[in-house]
């Protein structure tokens, strides 16, 4: 074969699997590679477009098969054209030719089913896809066993690879039939593969002494088995992958190994108190190991109750540790409450658990920024029922009305008109004069040429900031009226906050976050856990690595992001930005008060919007379908249209299905 023809054949094989083989006359191998590649691509498109989550493992295997087919195409053409002379073209027997023809017919019929499926055919293919993964792996494993000897050489490791693939296929089939999750056993029993390989080496060594066959390690078979097993385990057990505890190691969880739990001997410490007045503007609470509960109560000073747990068998030594574990309160305008547990054990590696209950005197309502914060704090303390807005949501009516009314309301317009009458010298009647606002005067003598006096701003009174730091243990803050900002930092434990007057910033490495009745902005983040927020009157920014997000009755802007988990948003009055790498997004709101952006790499997106709103919709999907009962236009893989005046924009970007429905209360 000439160099020009060799280059052409190689280039064709690189562009289209099997094309080079057909070019040089190798019809059998060329057609097999070409048909296999086209079938794999068609199957990927079909199964990804009809509920990709159900057949995600099959899609991954087919996606890995495509580059393998390209490699085999180029490799085989290089082998076939490596000789200096042109090799003779294939002249298959008549029987083989007929078999190839029937194979092409069957492949064409199957391709037609993938490309133009009806409802019945789609159901058949979906069921076939459920069993195709496990059945295909069993077939591959059997073929590897049958071809353990090639070209007079024994492929060492091929039997082990076949056993791994057969095991994975069997587990997948059994899990689907019995609705079990036995594939998770791979994470516990994978060392058995090394034992099987060792047994195969011993048996092969004994057998080769008699047959004198050559040995060759089957690196390709072993790699194939590893890819199949790792993909099966990684996809089916995605939520249990080790990246959870990897993220926790980032959070210094390794340093918490000596932090004990509620075990051993329990001791109730005497209540520690400190005076309290309005000059205290900031509070810092620190507890390395243990729970922190913060409340308001009918007390005149700050009270801290501590419960100490010492995990020792020796009661006398445990009592000594408990006595030396203390709570210290220091500072005046900036108060610090710190739990200091006495280390014990070898090299002082153990820390006792100290559960703290901190009680503050009831704050006056004046320290809060809004009456809604008072309502939230009273509700958290159990002294007032929650208010409901006229729209039916749980947002306080005052907040909803304040958001709906323009800045220059009717009362302000009347006041402005009255001020205009005074400044212009208008007299009016005595009744009208009583309702007007007095004009500022320059001096007591009534001179009008001087500048008006600007009153000095008063410094805010009451508790403005609170910071809580815990390494191991939950944090629960309820009914504490903080006018400024509450900051909670945790390493290993849940965070709960309810009824605060200001903003909240909560972060934990391992644990969920629950927020309720927050008058200000919210910023919440966790590596492993779910974030929930209900009735927040400011902006909400949420970041999660592994876990879901659930938000309800949010008055301000919403920004929610998670790598692995679903996002559920109910009643968002302003702009929304929701993004997840792996999970579903559902947004239900009776109003669209800002731009919405929703994106999911793997997962459906469902939106429930008002049919009488004012917004435009623009969305597209890579795979999957689009559904709507609103007057929107669906064209192939896109959805677009306008509701009302189109004042706001809704942008949807998904790889799976998109559903846009009418909001139903």
From TrEMBL:
Coiled coil: none
Keywords assigned by UniProt, alphabetized: Membrane, Transmembrane, Transmembrane helix
Record field: transmembrane: 6-24, 31-50, 56-78, 121-146, 158-177, 189-208, 215-235
Signal peptide as annotated in the record: none
Domain DUF4097: from-to ranges: 464-656
Keyword Membrane: yes
Low complexity bias (residue ranges): 372-386
Composition-biased stretches (Polar residues): 429-450
Residue ranges, annotated region (Disordered): 372-463
Protein name (Swiss-Prot/TrEMBL): DUF4097 domain-containing protein
Native source organism of the sequence: Paenibacillus sambharensis
Taxonomy of the source species: Bacteria, Bacillati, Bacillota, Bacilli, Bacillales
